Write the structure tokens for this entry.
Amino acid sequence: MLVHEQLLRGQTALVTGANSGIGEASARALAAAGAAVGVNYVVNPKQAQKVVGDIVASRGRAVALQADVGNEDQVQAMFQTLFKEFGTIDILVNNAGLQRDSAFTEMTLQQWNTVLTVNLTGQFLCAREAAREFRRRGVRPEISQAAGKIVCMSSVHQEIPWARHANYAASKGGVKMLMETIAQELGPERIRVNAIAPGAIKTPINHDAWATPEAEADLLRLIPYRRVGVVEDISRAVVWLASDLSDYVHGTTLFVDGGMTLFPGFASGG
Ligand code: NAD
């Protein structure tokens, strides 16, 4: 077992968008490391219940929490339910995200707003609620050296411009500055804030990019390490950033991308 089951013992985590892909894997990994987990979802309650059921069946603690992360009232209600269930929060994984792709000149305001509301405003709303609780409760040295940990799911597209995805790239660039700014602001209170920038990870969000051998071969040209990532590549990084093993890591983006940000186009020229 790669994750030590005592690592996050006594801690509570909330993972947004935890009934699919990277969020689901993160919820499972945090539970395996000993955390009680809030499994947020907005659609597909059955899959959220399955994640909760599997965690409970392995003697973990979890609860499914429905909320649209872009809706302030729903986010605040979700945190209240989490506190009723588990008392407090130690770890927030700001993971929920989506794409609404379009050529720039065809992009509708709705496509723009949907992506910014979920990917950026959603992270703001959840981080704010978590930070308020971290501040109220403070550090419990027997639990963690930090008053709380926030892990923001960004993307290599916080750095790499992406044609036909202006809304998505802008949202992730925003996540980078949101993360760094609140890390600067909240660090003195021992609130630790970091981001993970995944490269190409096999999940429903990018199914078409790896679903056929031709598509996968095309994608591999962009990955120096020559494999497409899997959700466990990211969930292991989430557990590390949520634990005291990374206690001096603050305000950093951890790229987990098989080298996608190494300008692979220059490998054979330039
Ligand atoms: P996914 O589609 O499997 O999961 C996204 C989750 O977010 C789903 O559970 C979805 O229901 C949820 N969600 C969407 N809108 C929501 C809302 N309003 N409120 C609450 N939940 C909502 O995709 P994934 O690949 O697991 O994506 C997870 C995160 O990782 C996203 O932020 C995405 O941008 C990021 N990411 C993914 C990749 C990749 O290659 N898969 C790469 C870089 C970044």
